[in-house]
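Researcher: I've got a protein sequence and the SMILES for zinc ion. Could you write out the 3D structure of the bound complex as structure tokens? I'd like something to compare against our soaking experiments later this week.
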Amino acid sequence: MSIYECECMEPRLWDCEDKGTYLGLDMTDSRYGDVWLYQCPNCAKHWLFYRIEYPSFSKSGRWFRTVLSENNSDNIKPEDAESLMNASSYRIVGGSYYESPGIILTGTSKLPFD
Ligand SMILES: [Zn+2]
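Model: Sure. Here is the predicted complex with zinc ion in place.
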């Protein structure tokens, strides 16, 4: 048994990117972030998934996923992702930037979108 209430809460990439709905590119500050929305089939949590990389910088690849409340999971636009993710108190992050396959960040802090 996992210590997490659902597999989707585990600190790893999970299915948000592969099985999620692609919302499009976040072009805020010309950053080209890819954004997906995913609903877990087990626990019905809504996740927002974000992936970005700055090709001119090594170890800049990073992804974030955050739990959304049901009320704010409709009509999300890619450019809404940064404020929604910074407001979430349960984030899972990973990638070459973190040198980690997945870490849980709780509490509030600004994620490194830029
Ligand atoms: Zn789940």
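Model: Helices lie at 16-19, 81-87. Strands lie at 21-26, 33-39, 46-52, 62-68, 90-95, 100-106.
Researcher: Great, I'll pass this along to the crystallography team.
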